[in-house]
Every structure is written in structure tokens, then in C-alpha cells.
Design goal:
- The complex is a heterotrimer of chains A (336), B (354) and C (460).
- With 336 residues, chain A is mainly α.
- Chain A has helices at 3-26, 32-63, 70-84, 90-111, 121-143, 174-196, 198-208, 210-215, 220-246, 256-266, 271-300, 308-322; strands at residues 159-161, 170-172.
- Chain B is built from 14 helices and two strands; from the N terminus they run ααααααββαααααααα.
- Chain B has helices at residues 13-16, 23-43, 46-72, 80-97, 103-122, 130-150, 178-201, 203-213, 215-220, 225-252, 262-275, 280-303, 310-331, 336-349; strands spanning 168-170, 173-175.
- The radius of gyration of chain B is 21 Å and the shape is globular.
- The termini of chain B are close together.
- With 460 residues, chain C is an alpha/beta fold.
- The chains are: A mainly alpha (336), B mainly alpha (354), C alpha/beta (460).
Chain lengths: 336, 354, 460
């Protein structure tokens, strides 16, 4: 597409999204208070997706592997924390689980990735899929298939705030705000890690160019272990947050499929992309389901809504058609 | 010593260009076909047909389709199960609404409809490549899943969303017993494989392979990427559609939208990776592997006399499945077809060492 | 690994796998004979799911079922005929369920199959008549399969989803002082997006037309962990009642989201598969007030549970944990097994005390007559009411009660309701006729069969 056409496409897409965002309020489809609730709900969902997508991005940035197993890692970490917290305080269980995830990272690098160094993307994708199957089975063998709880001590009942401003008030959950705060802290910590510490700088070097990094003496294998361990830690945080919200059970690993549109929208190699992509997808999904869904059901006489199953993907697809590398991804230059 | 081309001189272009130029290969293929069509119906048990061979053949057809797209044309697709669903529902609706049509025509039409849908969802491939395209095809998967669950017309306004087609009848022959089903599916598989082999050998196939290897260079020498990529999507979806129709009508008998979910897509991708990308024989190997392995893993504990619970057996199955996939990817990324090719190469020398 | 070693290892592994793959078909060439089922044993295939998203609910059911089979064997079998059983993991997936069925149906003397999934039931309904194996779908399955003339091989014993939905509407009507008071009210159905969840919709729409209430349909996709948008919609529309038709993880997630959006739990009613311990214990005290249907039985131990504890668990043969004995889903599995055993027993009265074929067991299931005396002898009289099936009625009973979660346990809060046959019967008739027409089958005629069987029955 020519640059001019590209700009029009970007403008068009931005307009479409803005219409979608403001539409319900302008068309009077909902009360302002409820609109804010859906917005908050979407942002919270988005934060959760971003946490999972963060793990994807970290690993892809450093080793070029598309880690389909991130969902299974989230589940495995959550199961570890949930089951260990049954016999020890939550904080201790958390630290132990972080250790478990680090060991898992080391094993994955040693047993799987080291042997698949120069294979193309599909093969690596399939290898991480294999890891997913293995982790699913292994996690359930050790920890079981029941629904387990992670008690963070936060109140589950929602608060009604701003009753004066909005008719009926807005329902907010303390848990969600804490989750958002933790996610923000995590991103901040990661940013500091990447910018200020030598290991972080080495990671960025490896992400830039493997061969150059190797040539100046950065041990590639060790860096990969560190990256997977960090991604494992991110998975642990995501697992604890998801687990305390939804309960820990096998089906948690299917959440990872929702994080894929986040990653492709934001760009495979961008951390801010993962965050912003997550927020866009979260809000877009909820808005589509709550406001667009009933409209479609009425027009086409559908047997119910459920639009959010595919909306995230279609949204990401639209973005891709306009920016094939994602919002913040690197421009890919084809060499013939 | 036995597997040599000594003395086999080709005296016409047609003989030179045939699919199996070595006469031993032709004998082997003829023997295999005779065994499959004539001998198997008498020695096979119902369980063998229904649970092993029929799923194997149907999934092999779908795997051939996916192989054409991924192995020959290089476009990663994670949405094949969606096209299978399109084929299955299209066949169901044709059979319900136009009952006079012969089922073979219904199969072809279902495939064509799936092909059209495939072209539609293949359009992004003109802009997007690689992993991005893979995830974009997931959009097709989830959208089609949703569409068949929601648009009531497709399920003939069934309250439960479950559809149940009538038994297949072709020229008065009712396909109801396992042997009949086996023969029907075998016939379709042979015809589709032959078609695929010829497509892949011809100029269309070469265009696909050029796009796969270096798409910019292919465009430079005059192969139109639009035509090539969309034709790959179309043919691949045609195969997936036919396989889907067979899967729904013969293997499942009654299905709901969940029957064609993303797990099936991932399984098909496993099949072609383990079997060998860019190889039709690999599709068959991969399909056999994926169909037989879970059954093997399920029953192995019983053979060894180990009394383990079904839950543990199920978990072990998942773990061993994952481990085997990783093992194969590490040890032989080109798949079982490569091992077969190596075997044939060794066979040319056997029993001599070099 | 050196190249040579790598090639050798690859070759060996490939050879090993090839050998394994080849022997599997070879052993399948012969008719499968199972080690457990020796001559003289009745075979019960047990289709269960102990893994996956539905494992929390499937596992207690399976434990109850197998425990009862072990109890019957410990008591000497069905009039002396031992029961052999084999579990097969379906993971609530239709194709795996069909595969399990195909593998286990080749055993000798298969009594009946209980799919424990409406989706698998739909798939097996087409195969059962050809294979002559009855399907028992106690409390689930096709609602129209009550009609024995169209579905001779399906037995939705104890009630179907149309009965369940009907009873919920009756109860809600009662809460409002009469079914006519429902006019203008809003009822939301949060359902699992599968044949199981969609089954009650037809009846609810029928009732909505009759009484004038608004029906909101909110599907939740498998596995049901993402329900935020669904509950935001509920918050937007503020329905008066929410009917929950979920399974597995979906149920506890629904309750969590209800807490998060502030929907009063005492206005939520679950079907009998959404009102059990695994659904509420993850939320525990926050789910207080949530009500659900009890398929005649609730939680709590009866005499049969004591027997199980004494003869099975105390001998170290218990299938699951001891404190699970008496929970809602455990008892449901136990009663499902009991109904199958009684069906075989009834068939033995006609065909003799020996291992029976599926066709013979079908006769037994169609002529079940569990009166109060028999229930007392079995030790389940506090769990269910008398049940009797016949050719036209394959369910045998259509009553249920409402139970409520008080934060720690389930307790009954209503009397027995009977599903209103006046509305349901015509629906069954149309639906089963449609099935028969679509599949090009012929309806059998109960009247002819009953008159033909009358002399034989008189002999008994």
C-alpha cells in the first residue's frame, strides 16, 4: 500500500474505533454509570490479558520463540501456588513457586530449545505446543484437576462509589484495582531490570541481534534461561491474579488463546505494545459483547451473543491489515 | 539389489512423467490398493474400521489439504477445522434441503463452498505473513465456530444446536455398515490423493513452492502471489471441506459446533509437522501417528497389566504426546516422510553396504 | 549427540513406534475380549471424565457410580451375576465419547451405556439402535427421548431438562404468588453453549409465551471461565431471576461473577447439574442463598451410603475420598448405577438369571417398577420417590425439589414439584416426530407391543 493510502487506512480504523468507543454513550444505548462500569471491566480484563501477553513478548524478544506454552505456564504456576498455600503461608508458597518456575525454565531451555536453535517459526511454535500438552498433563498429575482457591485476603464484594455523580453509582472491585496496581508495578520492575541492570542490557542485546551478542561474549544459553525464568515469574504473577479471581483449574490455560490477539495487535517484540494491546482488546471485547452483541442478535435473529469469542481476533486482524507488524512491532524488511 | 531401476528404460514422455516411475513402486502401490480394497473388508473388525482406519483416512484427506497450504505454499494456517466445519454444515444443509442430490455431488459442492470460504479468509495472507497469519487464521476458526452456533439457519433451527444427518445413500447403496463406510471413505481418499499429487506436480504446485521458498523473488519472475496464495487456500479448504463432510457424516454421525474446535486444527498441524511438511505421504504418516497414538497410550497400561486410574492414564497420554512431539521435532524436523525417504534410499543399496 | 548415534537412535525409536503401531491394529483384528469380563459376568462400560474443565463435577459422579457397582458385587452381584466394569475417559468431548463407546461395546454382555454428556448422547442416539445397546441418560440427554415410540433405546430416567426448566418456572411462579404474576418479569438463562445448555430453551420460550415473562438468553462458551461480559449484560438488564445451566468450572465462575457484579445470589436458580458442592465451595460463604434443583435427592447420607461405607470403603475399596460419600453428585452417580442394576434385575425376571444382552436389558429398563418397598430394600427411600417406566414413558418420574446453599451445606426449601405434562407432552410429540422424519426411521407402536406382550406378562 502506498504511504498515502496507508494513512487513510489508519485514520479510517481510528475513526471506526472511536465510534465504537463513544457510540453507546452517544446513541443512548446505556446509562453513563453502566458505560463506565463496562469500560472499567474492559480495562481490568485488558490488564489480565496484558500480563499473559507480557510473557509471550519477553520470550519472543529474546529468543524468537513464539511461546504457545505461556498459558500452560500460567496454569502450572497458579496450581503450584494454590496447592502449596494449603500447607504454608501464601507468601512462602509464592516464593517457592517462583523457584519452581525458574527450574522449569531451565529444563525447557536445556531439553527443548537448545536442540531447536535454527529451526523456523512453525517448528518452534509446535515445540512450545508440545510443551503445553506436557505441562497440562504434568500439572494435573501432581496437583489434581479440582478447582482450587488462592486466598489473597482481598474482599470479593464490590463497592458502590460515586453515587452522587452517576445515577445508581458505579460498582468497582477492590481486587481489580489491586491487580492493575500489581501489573503496573511488574511492568515498572521489568523496565528497570531491562534498562539499569547488566543482565537486562545483555537481554536487550540478544533481542537485537543474536550473532552480534554472541560475538561480544554474551552467553546465549544462559540469557535464554534467564528470559524464560523471567517469563515464568510473569506467568506466576498472572497465575496468582487470574487464580484469585477465577479459581485455579485446568481451563485457566485456555485463557492464553485470548492473549494471542493482544500480542499480534501490539507487536510481537514490544512490551508497551503488550500493555496497550491488552487494554484495547479488553475494552473492545467487552464493548462488543455488551453493546454490539444484542444489536446483532436482534438484527440477524441469532441464537444468543458470544461475540467476544472472535471479536478480539477480528479486531487484531483489522489492525494487522493496516499495520502488518502490529502497533509497536518492528518493521519487517524482506530481503530477496 | 531388489529396488533398482536397472533395465527400466522410458520410451515416451508420458512414461517419464508418471507418478511412480520405478516399477517396484508401482507393484507395491497396486498390492497396497488390492489389499485395502479387497482383502481388508474381510479381515478387519468393526472396531478397527470405525475407530482406526476411517478416522485415519478422513484426517489424512484434511492433512493433505493443510499440507498443500503450509507445506507446499508456506502459509501457516491454524483454522483448518473451521473449513472442515463449513464443509460438514454445507453438506448437511444440502442433504436436508435438496434431498434429490446424489451424495457425491453433495461432497463436491460442500468442498467448493468450503473453498470459497477459504479464499475469503485467505485474503489477509496477501498482507500478512508467518506467525501473524497463523494467529489471523485463528480469527477464521473462532468466527466460523461462533457462526454455526448462532445462525440458526445452518443447524436447521435445531433447538439443541446439534445436527444429525440422515444416512448416506449413493445410487441405492446405503453406506451404513462399517465396511461400507470404510470402502466409501477409501475411495474418496484415493481419488483426492491422486488429484493432490497431480496438482502438486504441475505448474500450480510449482508456483506454490516458489511462493513458499522466496515469495518476493517468485513475484519478480512473474508468479502472481494473489493467484498462487488464494489458489492454495482454495484447494486446501476444498480438501478440508470434503474431509469435514466425511468426518461429520461418517465418523461422528451427529455433531455440535464444538466438534470442530481449535484442538482439531492444532492436531492437523501436528499431523503434517510430524508426518513431514511438503509431502503427501507425510500427511498419511502424520494422520496415522496422531490417530493411533492416543489409542495406544490409552491401552498400553492395560497390556502391561498396570492398574492405573483413567485420570492418570489421560494425563500420561497428554504428557507422552507432548514429549513425543518435542522429540520428533528435535530429532527429525522434516518428519516421518524423511525417514521413509532415507529408508528407501538405503533400500536401493540393500543388501550391499555401499 | 554425534550424527551416527543420532541416526541409530532415530532408527530405533522409529522402529519401536512402528512396532507398537502395527501391533495395535493386529490386536484389534480379533474381537476385543476384556480381561475383567469372564464368562458369566455382566459388563458395565463407565464413560467418565476425571480430567479437563469438567473434572470437578465428573469425578464425584464417577466415584458414586463405581462405588455402587462395587457394593452390588460385594453383596453377591445381581442375583449372583457379578458386574464387570471398565472406565473410559471422555473428557466431555463427543469424539472421545464415541471412541470409548465403539471400543467398549464389543465386550460380551454390555448392559447399557451412560454417556454423562448430552453432546455424546446425541451422537450415540444414532448408533445405539444399530448396536442394540440401551442408553441411560438419568437427568440429562435428549428431552424428547422420553417418547419410547421414537427413541426405544434412550432412557432419560428421573427427568429431562424440559422437566427441570418447567419446575423452575413453577417455583418462581409460586414465589411470586402465582404463574400469572410472572407477567412482565425478566428471567435470564445463563447457559453452557452446548446441547446440554440449549436443551431447556425450547420449554422456557414456550412458558415465556404462556405467562408473559421476558426470557434473556446468555450463552457462555466452553469452558466457561470468561463470563464478565455476560454478567455485565445481566447488570445492565437487571433480570428478576437468573437460571444457571452450567457445568464444570462454569458454575463456580458464574457465582463469582455474580458476587463481583452484585447480583443477589438468592435470585439465582441452578439446574440439578449446577447445584452441587464443587459449584459453590470455591465461593463458599459468598454463594449463600443460591438455590438449585435437586433431582429428588439432595446432599446427605442415606442407608445405601452406610452400606457403601461399610462394604466398600471400610474394605479399602473406595473409589474416591471417604467424605465425598453423600455429596450431591456422588449420590447422583450412585442412583444412576442403581437404576441400571435394577434394569438388569428386571430383565433377569424375564430372561433368566444370567448375563444379558443389551436388547434384553432394554426390556428391563422399559419395565422398571421401583415402588416404595423396593426403594426401602435398596436403602434409597429417603433419596427418591417411586419410579416406573413403560413403553410411552422412558423417564419414569418427573419431580424435583428446590435446595438452597446456606454457606456450608445444601438444604431443601420446598416440597416436591411435578413437571407439567400438559405443556411438555405436545412438545415431546412434535420433536420426536421431527427426529423420526429427519432420520427416515419408523415409529414403533407401543399399543401393538403391549398387547403382544400381555400373555407373556401374565405368565410372570
Amino acid at each position: 500500500m502506498l504511504a498515502l493510502q496507508r494513512n487513510w487506512a489508519v485514520v479510517g480504523l481510528a475513526l471506526l474505533l472511536a465510534m465504537g468507543l463513544a457510540g453507546p454513550l452517544l446513541l443512548g444505548l446505556s446509562a453513563p454509570g453502566f458505560y463506565v462500569e463496562v469500560l472499567l471491566g474492559g480495562l481490568m480484563s485488558g490488564v489480565m490479558y496484558s500480563l499473559v501477553a507480557l510473557g509471550f513478548v519477553l520470550i519472543f524478544k529474546a529468543s524468537g520463540v513464539f511461546n504457545f506454552a505461556q498459558g500452560a505456564m500460567v496454569l502450572f504456576a497458579a496450581l503450584a501456588v494454590a496447592r502449596m498455600a494449603e500447607v504454608m503461608p501464601l507468601a512462602v508458597a509464592f516464593v517457592l513457586a517462583a523457584g519452581v518456575m525458574a527450574i522449569l525454565a531451565w529444563l525447557i531451555e536445556r531439553l527443548v530449545l537448545r536442540h531447536l536453535v535454527n529451526q523456523d517459526a512453525v517448528v518452534l511454535l509446535m515445540a512450545t505446543l508440545g510443551i503445553t500438552y506436557f505441562l497440562d498433563g504434568f500439572g494435573q498429575t501432581i496437583w489434581g484437576s479440582d478447582i482450587y482457591k488462592i486466598e489473597t485476603g482481598l474482599p470479593k464484594t464490590p463497592l458502590l462509589i460515586l453515587e452522587g455523580l452517576f445515577d445508581g453509582g458505579i460498582l468497582v472491585n477492590t481486587e481489580d484495582f489491586v491487580a492493575a496496581a500489581i501489573a503496573a508495578l511488574l511492568v515498572l520492575a521489568l523496565a528497570l531490570f531491562f534498562q539499569k541492570t547488566p543482565t537486562g542490557r545483555a537481554l536487550r542485546a540478544v533481542a537485537d541481534d543474536h550473532q552480534a551478542a554472541q560475538s561480544i561474549g554474551i552467553p546465549l544459553n544462559r540469557i535464554w534461561v534467564i528470559v524464560w525464568a523471567v517469563a515464568g515469574f510473569v506467568a506466576l504473577v498472572a497465575g496468582v491474579i487470574w487464580g484469585s479471581k477465577l479459581g485455579v483449574q485446568f481451563s485457566l490455560s485456555l485463557i492464553a488463546l485470548k492473549a494471542l490477539p493482544v500480542v499480534i495487535l501490539g507487536g510481537f517484540t514490544s512490551v508497551p505494545g503488550a500493555i496497550i494491546g491488552g487494554l484495547i482488546i479488553g475494552v473492545g471485547e467487552k464493548f462488543a459483547e455488551v453493546f454490539l452483541g444484542p444489536v446483532l442478535v436482534r438484527w440477524f435473529d441469532l441464537a444468543g451473543g458470544g461475540i467476544e469469542n472472535w471479536f478480539a481476533y477480528v479486531l487484531a486482524l483489522l489492525f494487522l491489515l493496516v499495520r502488518p507488524e502490529g502497533l509497536f512491532g518492528e518493521r519487517h524488511i524482506d530481503r530477496v | 539389489m531388489l529396488y533398482r531401476e536397472n533395465g527400466q528404460f522410458k520410451t515416451s514422455y508420458a512414461a517419464d512423467q508418471q507418478i511412480l516411475p520405478i516399477v517396484q513402486d508401482r507393484w507395491f502401490m497396486a498390492a497396497l490398493l488390492v489389499f485395502a480394497f479387497v482383502v481388508m473388508p474381510f479381515i478387519g473388525s468393526d472396531y478397527l474400521f470405525l475407530s482406526l482406519v476411517i478416522p485415519f483416512l478422513i484426517l489424512a484427506i484434511a492433512a493433505i489439504g493443510l499440507n498443500i497450504l503450509v507445506g507446499y505454499c508456506g502459509q501457516i494456517s491454524l483454522g483448518t477445522a473451521a473449513f472442515m466445519a463449513v464443509g460438514a454444515y454445507a453438506a448437511y444443509n444440502l442433504v436436508i434441503r435438496v434431498p434429490q442430490l446424489n451424495f457425491l455431488i453433495v461432497l463436491v459442492l460442500a468442498g467448493l463452498i468450503a473453498g470459497l470460504v477459504g479464499v475469503l479468509f485467505g485474503i489477509p495472507s496477501l498482507r500478512i505473513k508467518g506467525l501473524y497469519l497463523a494467529v489471523a487464521t485463528l480469527a477464521a476458526q473462532f468466527f466460523v465456530d461462533w457462526m454455526f452456533a448462532r445462525v440458526k439457519w445452518f443447524t436447521n433451527y435445531s433447538a439443541s444446536g446439534s445436527v444429525s444427518p440422515p444416512p448416506i445413500e449413493i445410487f441405492g447403496w446405503t453406506v451404513d455398515t462399517p465396511v461400507h463406510k470404510y470402502l466409501f471413505v477409501l475411495g474418496v481418499a484415493v481419488v483426492m490423493t491422486l488429484m493432490a499429487k497431480n496438482l502438486v506436480r504441475g505448474h500450480i504446485g510449482r508456483g506454490w513452492m516458489a511462493i513458499r521458498d522466496m515469495d518476493v523473488a517468485a513475484e519478480v519472475i512473474g508468479i502472481r502471489p494473489l493467484k498462487s496464495k488464494l489458489s492454495a487456500f482454495a484447494v486446501s479448504s476444498f480438501y478440508a471441506g470434503v474431509a469435514g463432510a466425511l468426518w461429520g457424516f461418517i465418523r461422528l454421525g451427529a455433531w455440535e459446533p464444538l466438534a470442530f474446535n481449535v484442538n482439531l486444527s492444532l492436531n492437523l498441524l501436528f499431523m503434517i509437522i510430524i508426518g513431514g511438511m511438503g509431502s503427501l505421504l507425510g500427511s498419511y504418516f502424520g494422520a496415522a501417528f496422531i490417530v493411533i497414538l492416543p489409542l495406544l497410550l490409552n491401552q498400553a497400561p492395560a497390556w502391561f497389566g498396570l492398574p492405573i486410574s483413567t485420570a492418570l492414564a489421560s494425563h500420561l497420554e497428554a504428557m507422552i504426546f507432548g514429549a513425543l512431539i518435542i522429540f520428533f521435532l528435535i530429532v527429525e524436523p522434516h518428519g516421518l516422510a524423511r525417514l521413509w525417504a532415507i529408508g528407501k534410499e538405503k533400500l536401493r543399496l540393500w543388501p550391499f553396504p555401499h | 549427540m554425534s550424527k551416527l548415534l543420532k541416526t541409530r537412535v532415530t532408527g530405533m525409536v522409529a522402529a519401536g513406534i512402528a512396532a507398537g503401531l502395527l501391533t495395535l491394529p493386529a490386536t484389534s483384528f480379533a474381537q476385543q475380549k476384556a480381561a475383567p469380563a469372564a464368562k458369566g459376568e455382566q459388563f458395565f462400560p463407565v464413560l467418565v471424565y476425571r480430567t479437563g474443565a469438567y473434572a470437578p463435577n465428573g469425578t464425584p459422579w464417577a466415584n458414586g457410580y463405581v462405588d455402587y457397582v462395587k457394593l452390588v458385587n460385594a453383596q453377591g452381584g445381581i442375583n449372583g451375576v457379578r458386574i464387570a466394569y471398565e472406565e473410559c475417559e471422555t473428557g466431555y468431548a463427543t469424539d472421545r465419547g464415541v471412541e470409548c463407546y465403539e471400543r467398549l461395546k464389543t465386550r460380551p454382555f454390555v448392559a447399557a451405556v451412560q454417556p454423562l454428556s448430552t453432546g455424546i448422547t446425541f451422537a450415540l442416539t444414532d448408533k445405539a439402535p444399530t448396536d442394540k445397546i440401551p442408553l441411560i441418560t438419568a437427568g440429562y440427554g435428549r428431552a424428547d427421548s422420553v417418547e419410547g415410540e421414537a427413541f426405544p433405546w434412550n432412557f432419560p430416567l428421573m427427568g429431562t431438562y424440559w422437566d427441570a426448566a418447567d419446575i423452575l418456572v413453577q417455583h418462581v411462579g409460586k414465589l411470586n404468588g402465582g404463574l400469572d404474576k410472572l407477567k412482565g418479569k425478566k428471567i435470564a438463562l445463563v447457559y453452557h453453549d452446548s446441547p446440554y445448555g440449549k436443551e431447556p430453551i425450547a420449554l422456557l420460550q414456550e412458558r415465556a409465551k404462556l405467562h408473559g415473562f421476558d426470557l434473556m438468553l446468555i450463552p457462555v462458551t466452553h469452558p466457561g471461565v470468561e463470563q464478565k461480559a455476560a454478567w455485565l449484560q445481566i447488570r445492565q438488564n437487571r433480570p428478576d431471576y437468573v437460571f444457571l445451566w452450567g457445568w464444570g468450572v462454569m458454575n463456580s465462575t458464574a457465582l463469582r461473577e455474580a458476587v463481583a457484579t452484585g447480583y443477589p445470589r438468592d435470585k439465582m436458580f441452578g439446574v440439578w447439574w449446577a447445584a452441587a458442592e464443587p459449584d459453590v465451595t470455591p465461593v463458599a460463604a459468598d454463594a449463600k442463598g443460591y438455590q438449585g434443583l435437586a433431582l429428588q435427592h439432595g446432599a446427605g447420607r442415606a442407608k445405601v451410603h452406610e452400606d457403601v461405607l461399610k462394604l466398600v470403603h471400610d474394605k479399602g475399596q473406595g473409589t474416591g475420598p471417604r467424605d465425598e460419600v453423600g455429596s450431591v453428585l456422588y449420590t447422583r452417580g450412585l442412583l444412576s448405577a442403581m437404576l441400571q442394576v435394577e434394569g438388569v434385575r428386571q430383565a433377569q425376571l424375564r430372561y433368566g438369571v444370567q448375563p444379558l444382552t443389551g436388547e434384553q436389558v432394554r426390556y428391563g429398563l422399559e419395565n422398571l417398577n421401583l415402588d416404595a418397598k423396593r426403594l426401602e430394600a435398596l436403602g434409597v427411600s429417603t433419596l427418591m420417590k417411586p419410579l416406573a417406566t413403560n413403553c410411552r414413558d422412558h423417564a419414569g418420574a418427573r419431580s424435583a425439589r428446590i435446595q438452597q446453599w446456606d454457606g456450608t451445606k445444601w438444604g431443601f426449601v420446598s416440597d416436591y414439584y411435578e413437571a407439567d405434562n400438559q405443556i411438555i407432552k405436545p412438545m415431546i410429540k412434535t420433536s420426536s416426530a421431527r427426529y423420526v422424519a429427519e432420520k427416515k426411521l419408523t415409529m414403533r407402536s407401543c399399543a401393538d407391543e403391549i398387547s403382544a406382550a400381555a400373555p407373556a406378562a401374565a405368565k410372570k
